[in-house]
Amino acid sequence: MGSIGTALHAAHRCVRPLLPAVLLLLAACTADTGREISFSTAIQPILDEKCVGCHFGGRAPFDMTRGDAHQDLMKGRYIVPGKAEASPLYVKVKGGHAAVAPLTSQQLKDLKMWIDQGAKRN
Ligand code: HEC
């Protein structure tokens, strides 16, 4: 009887120091890392709002199609799938593309994650 109590006590002492680490891990898993960014619901609206106004009809070096710009971006090599920091589009937008309304930090984060996740047409 006493031995069960002792075993429980020992187990408790063993698990307790680990709790903060476990909680931290859980928090990290449920945060942004597990979120897949969708082109159609997260990225295209940014392009429609902040880019298509110029990037259409020859006012800028390349056109983006409102509502479906994925192919436009991919054929122009502005995006290196899996590597946001190596993608001219991300670097330009992050660095402050002249005359463009700045993206919110959430929009920038979504753009980066979408490219890092493979720039899929999802
Ligand atoms: C106010 C008009 C305007 C807006 C809005 C705009 N652009 Fe541009 N963009 C230009 C012009 C003009 C150029 C060419 C000169 C330059 O490179 O800055 C350009 C160049 C670029 C280039 C480089 C093209 C190349 O061949 O080197 C990329 C990438 C780009 N824009 C992406 C975007 C994205 C993404 C957005 C939206 C977040 C955006 N632009 C919004 C006018 C605009």
General description of the model:
It is a single chain. The chain has 122 residues and is an all-alpha fold. The chain folds into two domains: 2-30, no CATH class; 37-116, no CATH class. The chain has six helices and no strands. It has helices spanning 2-15, 19-30, 39-50, 70-75, 88-95, 105-116. Helix 3 packs across helix 6. The protein is rod-shaped, with a radius of gyration of 23 Å.
At a glance:
It contains six helices and no strands. It has helices at 2-15, 19-30, 39-50, 70-75, 88-95, 105-116.
The low-confidence parts are: none
H/E order of the elements? Answer: HHHHHH
What general outline do the C-alpha atoms trace? rod-shaped
- Number of strand elements: 0
N- to C-terminal separation? Answer: 59 Å
Which secondary structure elements does this structure contain, and how are they paired or packed?
Elements: H1 2-15, H2 19-30, H3 39-50, H4 70-75, H5 88-95, H6 105-116
Helix pairs in contact: 3-6
Bound molecules: heme C.
Overview features:
122 residues, mainly alpha, 2 domains, 52% helix
